[in-house]
Amino acid sequence: MSAGVTLAELLAQSGLPLLEARMLLERVLGKNRAWLAAHADEAADAEAQNAFAALAQRRGDGEPIAYILGVREFYGLEFGITPAVLIPRPETELLVELALERIPANAPLRVLDLGTGSGVIAVALAKERPQARVTAVDVDYAALSVARANAKRHKVGVRFFCGDWFGALAGERFELIVSNPPYVAAGDAHLGQCDLAFEPQRALVGGADGLDCIRAIVAKAGAHLDPGAWLLFEHGYDQSGACAALLAAHGYRQMQSWPDLAGIVRVSGARAAQNVLK
């Protein structure tokens, strides 16, 4: 590596967007952004140059920066992330906000997060509503390991189960069920692009039309919801109509859909009725 290269020059030569390059260099040096700005003209030693070059190469090859760093912020909290789980996205915070509106601050409501992945939804809910009794389910052991570590990181009590949707929850009922399930249609061109190309496909793809997992959740949730309890789930930008039809077909009531900050209808939900199909 080049001798006498300053930290500022190292960032400029990386070929990466400045923000991403700074994040990688902060990781290599174990310093924060303020320190980096104050020491931009200092020389980078060979060890730092080599380590930074390796991370920059991975990012240049398209690997998501969240996987390189092993962390991602969600709902104001930092979560551990590995390639076993999806990378948390800001639009999913809408699902958390809608759930929190339905969980009183001091009530021990029973809340279920289906397909928890890294656990960001379950942990954020448990952090914001410490009295809630949060349960999280995922079919993948590796994902559950990440979720458990995140619950420990934020010192919240969440029950975790490994199973296919409600398979591990026989006889249990909840006062709120939330989910960010796989909802991308198989064969969607976006699956091979950007971060999606590196993320676990089983956590993205929901069958030929993207609705297989949502169908299963809507059909089975009635047996696990108290009468009048809410089911809320994230879906694709063009799936709200189909989701409303599914909810209606299974006897739910007060169906609603909500847009994210970009104006894209991102979450749908409804309340369970006495006659929800089991």
Description of the molecule:
Helix content is 35%, strand content 19%. By secondary structure, the chain is an alpha/beta fold. A seven-stranded mixed beta sheet has the order 5-4-3-6-7-9-8, sandwiched between helices. A two-stranded antiparallel sheet has the order 1-2. Helix 2 crosses helix 4 and helix 6 (93-101) packs parallel to helix 7 (120-128). The mean pLDDT is 92.
The best one-word shape is elongated
Number of helices: 10
The mean pLDDT is: 92
Strand sequence of the main sheet, in spatial order? Answer: 5-4-3-6-7-9-8
Low-confidence stretches: none
Our Rg estimate from Cα atoms comes to 21 Å
Beta-strand residue fraction: 15-25%
Question: What's the structural blueprint in terms of helices and strands?
Answer:
Layout: H1 7-13, H2 18-29, H3 33-38, H4 46-60, H5 65-69, E1 71-74, E2 77-80, H6 93-101, E3 110-114, H7 120-128, E4 133-138, H8 141-153, E5 158-162, E6 174-179, H9 212-221, E7 225-234, H10 240-249, E8 253-259, E9 265-271
Helix pairs in contact: 2-4, 6-7
Please summarize what this structure is.
The protein is built from ten helices and nine strands. It is an alpha/beta fold and 278 residues long.
List keywords for this structure.
278 residues; alpha/beta; 7-stranded mixed sheet; two-stranded antiparallel sheet; 10 helices; 35% helix; elongated
